[in-house]
Amino acid sequence: MSTSDSPSKPEVADKETAAADKVDTFTQIHTKSIFPTTRVETDDPTPSVFLAGSIDMGEAVNWQAAITKSLESLKLGIYIFNPRRVNWNSGWPQDINFKPFFDQVDWELDMLERATVIAMFLPENSKAPISLLELGLFAHKGTLIVGCPKAFWRRGNVEIVCKRYNVPMVDTLEELVTAVHDRLAALGKANKNATAHGKGAPINDGTNKKPESE
């Protein structure tokens, strides 16, 4: 073989650089917050957490920011679906025919159905009627984890629903964060084991490359 038939060093270097860039780009994809009404592809296998729980027209404590910061520390390739929007207008009519309101609620329901984990927090000074509705809708799915302080006004009802449907329930936001961490870690191991046997997709934690299409 002549030297002209051998790949040139610049070409090899270019390929190596391209591969390195691909890996670097992938490992830099960590937690990504998704707000209404941005959607992700339905076939996107990326694990996700929906932050259900009290907003109370923007008046409830912003617990979503605290749990988001904690989840970001995991440096996993996950989506966080956060329904709390900065441009929410409490004067919007609660009417199915009012498009901005409909789009918000429709997005929330779609993302709740899609989420790998639903983290629900019910602060003790909130009423959370919509969150209680969502608890009833999704208690049976096996994706819900509930944080409900002992002083929450309907804690007894929440406890009974969680017991009936085997929904993990804790008392504080800190315990909820830990429970979500543990669930994601368990799912990560399960997904990696499933992938080793040709099933499922791994959590993108920076050590796994995206599966190539066959």
Describe the protein in words.
The chain is 42% helix and 11% strand. By secondary structure, it is an alpha/beta fold. It has a single domain (26-196), classed as Rossmann fold, CATH 3.40.50.450. It has a six-stranded parallel sheet, with helices on both faces. α5 (155-164) links the parallel β5 and β6. α2 (63-72) runs parallel beside α6 (173-196). The chain is globular and about 45 Å long. 26% of the residues are buried.
For the secondary structure, the number of strands is 6
| Count of discrete structural domains | 1
The biggest beta sheet reads: 6 strands, parallel
Indicate the percent of residues in helices.
Answer: 40-55%
C-alpha geometry: globular
What is the subunit organization of this protein? single chain
User: What would you report as the Rg, rounded to the nearest angstrom?
Assistant: 21 Å
Q: Tell me the strand order in the biggest sheet.
A: 1-3-2-4-5-6
Q: What percent of residues are in strands?
A: 5-15%
- Which CATH architecture would you pick? 3-Layer(aba) Sandwich
Q: What is the CATH class designation?
A: Alpha Beta
Low-pLDDT segments: 2-28, 194-214
Number of helices: 6
Structural class designation: alpha/beta
Protein name: Nucleoside 2-deoxyribosyltransferase like protein
Biased composition (Basic and acidic residues): 11-20
Region (Disordered): 1-20, 191-214
Pfam families: Nuc_deoxyri_tr2
Task: Give structural attributes.
disordered N terminus; 214 residues; 6 strands; Rossmann fold; disordered C terminus; alpha/beta; six-stranded parallel β-sheet
